[in-house]
Amino acid sequence: MANFNSVWEALKMVTLTFILWFHWKALNKIIYEGGAATTQGVIALIQGQVLDMLRVYSIKVKSKVEVNKVEQLLGCRLANPKLRSYKTVRWLLPQTNSNILNSDGSSLSSFDAGYGFLIRDDRGDLIYGETGFLGDACSFKVELAGILFGLCKCFQMKLENVLAQTDNLALALLLQKGTIFLGSTFWL
Known about the structure:
The protein is an alpha+beta fold. It is 46% helix and 20% strand. It has 5 helices and 6 strands; from the N terminus they run αααβββαβαββ. Helix 1 runs antiparallel to helix 2. The longest helix is centred in the first third of the chain and has 26 residues.
C-alpha cells in the first residue's frame, strides 16, 4: 500500500491510470463493435477524457487553496471552478402505512449508464433494492429508468401508498405536470 502525504499526491498517481483505462475501454469498443480508430477520433477521445477529469476536479474542490493545488497539479487553469459547499441532509420517514421509492441514475460516459432504486417502508427499513446497466443512455433516460423499474417493482409487490423521489428536476416536472420546461421550450 502506498503512503501518500496528501490527497493531491494520490491524485497525481491515479489520474493517468484513469485516463488510460477509459481510453483503453473506448478503443476496445471501437475495435470490437465495429468502426475504425482515426487519428482525429483518438484525439477527440483523449480530449473528452481530459475534460471529464477537469470537470471532476473543478467540482470536488473545497476551497480556493485546493483550486490552486488542482490547477498546479494539472498544469492549467480551471474555468470557473465551483467550490463544494456542504449541507446536512436528513432522510425523513414517510407517513405511516406508506412506502418510499428512492431512485437515481448515473452516466459515466455515453456508453456506461446505469440506474438504481431502493424501496423502504414507513420505518425506513429496506424492502427491496436494485441496480441495472443500460449501456448507451443519457442521464435523463437512466433517471427515468430508475423510477420506471422501481414503480414496476412496487406494482409487482402489490405495495400501496408509494411516494417516489428523484433528484432530477426535469423528470419530477414530467411526472408531476406532464411537461418538461427547459429554457423557453416545453416538452410533452
